[in-house]
Amino acid sequence: MAADEKAQAKGEQAEGKIKKVVGGATGNESLKAAGRAEESKGDLRAAKEKAKDAIRPK
Question: How far is CA 18 from the centre of its chain?
């Protein structure tokens, strides 16, 4: 399950980055803002998984 969460985080980060770039290139501020939000969501999910990995016994 952790691998699924990590993959989902990477997907959200990539999708957010694409939206942010496309929004900036087209001048669409709402798309750019949505991209930033989605990228942040992916960053938070990745941080959560990293913290869980640090706590988990080896």
Answer: 11
pLDDT in tens, 29-47: 999 999 999 999 999 999 9
- Does the structure show a pLDDT above 60 at 1? no
Asked if residues 30 and 23 have their Cβ atoms less than 8 Å apart, the reply is: yes
How far is it, in rounded angstroms, from Cα 55 to Cα 53?
A: 5
Contact 10, 42 (CB under 8 A): yes
Written as six digits, the tokens of 51 are: 């913290």
12-20 CB contacts, 8 Å cutoff, 24+ apart = 12/38, 12/39, 12/41, 12/42, 12/45, 13/39, 13/42, 13/43, 13/46, 14/42, 15/42, 16/40, 16/41, 16/42
